[in-house]
From TrEMBL:
<dbReference type="InterPro" id="IPR051782">
    <property type="entry name" value="ABC_Transporter_VariousFunc"/>
</dbReference>
<keyword id="KW-0547">Nucleotide-binding</keyword>
<dbReference type="Pfam" id="PF00005">
    <property type="entry name" value="ABC_tran"/>
</dbReference>
<protein>
    <recommendedName>
        <fullName>ABC transporter domain-containing protein</fullName>
    </recommendedName>
</protein>
<keyword id="KW-0813">Transport</keyword>
<dbReference type="InterPro" id="IPR003593">
    <property type="entry name" value="AAA+_ATPase"/>
</dbReference>
<dbReference type="InterPro" id="IPR017871">
    <property type="entry name" value="ABC_transporter-like_CS"/>
</dbReference>
<keyword id="KW-0067">ATP-binding</keyword>
<dbReference type="GO" id="GO:0005524">
    <property type="term" value="F:ATP binding"/>
</dbReference>
<dbReference type="InterPro" id="IPR027417">
    <property type="entry name" value="P-loop_NTPase"/>
</dbReference>
<feature type="domain" description="ABC transporter">
    <location>
        <begin position="1"/>
        <end position="207"/>
    </location>
</feature>
<dbReference type="InterPro" id="IPR003439">
    <property type="entry name" value="ABC_transporter-like_ATP-bd"/>
</dbReference>
<dbReference type="GO" id="GO:0016887">
    <property type="term" value="F:ATP hydrolysis activity"/>
</dbReference>
Length: 207
């Protein structure tokens, strides 16, 4: 990211963000509510236009990272009256990257039962978060952008999900994660970026 700026109606939400992130690493983004973590993730994903600056992938400028990324931003998008498996089947049908076995695998990875017929609209908060994780991991993307991915999970599920995220790192994935839970950040991240008022402060914590 080179000099990324985002301004809305004269208000600066991101100021001169310069970061070089490498595959095979997990980067944590921490900061107070409203410090700009989600806006930064949205700009990277192309869900929000940047005002200026460039995003380079392997040295080549790219509009955003949407091509090969799995993400969790705010609420998951799902069809409430379908089961988890049916929801994943609908996503998988677009690009035909994930087959039936992959759908079952990602659901089980996060503790959901592929044969559960319950409509996801009736899921608990934690179950919806597991669905969101399954969706993000579904197509085995090179990049994972995860905004508060574990906040609603029970203790065992948090441990399991952390293990899964670390496995992705070992498989060479680039993971960006925003969390208010110091334990998530400490147990997962190679490097931590602190955000304040739309600025990334110099890194304070390195493993
Ligand atoms: N569409 C928008 N229009 C105007 N301002 C916005 C918009 N989206 C976000 N903001 C503002 O940008 C700032 C950063 O918000 P952001 O959601 O990135 O914070 P955050 O660090 O993710 O916070 P939290 O920890 O609460 O999730 C906030 O002041 C917010 O009000």
């Amino acid at each position: 990211m080179n000099n990324i700026n985002k301004t809305i109606k004269g208000v600066s939400l991101l100021t001169d963000i310069n970061l070089a992130l490498e595959s095979g690493h997990i980067y944590g983004f921490v900061g107070d509510n409203g410090s700009g973590k989600t806006v930064l993730f949205k700009v990277l994903l192309g869900l929000m236009h940047k005002t200026s600056g460039t995003i380079l992938v392997d040295g080549r400028e790219q509009k955003d990272l949407m091509q090969d990324v799995g993400f969790i931003i705010e609420r998951p998008e799902y069809i409430p009256y379908y089961s988890a498996k049916k929801n994943l089947e609908i996503i998988a049908a677009y690009r035909k990257v994930a087959d039936d076995q992959r759908i079952r695998t990602v659901l089980e990875m996060f503790g959901l039962d592929p044969s559960d017929k319950k409509a996801v609209g009736k899921y608990s908060l934690g179950m919806k978060q597991k669905l969101a994780l399954s969706m993000a991991f579904l197509e085995d993307p090179k990049v994972l952008i995860l905004d508060e991915p574990l906040s609603a999970l029970d203790a065992d599920s948090v441990q399991e999900a952390r293990k899964r995220i670390l496995e992705e790192k070992k498989r060479g994935k680039l993971v960006l994660i925003a969390s208010h839970y110091p334990e998530d950040i400490q147990s997962l991240c190679d490097e931590v970026y602190w955000m304040k008022n739309g600025h990334v402060l110099p890194s304070k914590e390195n493993k």
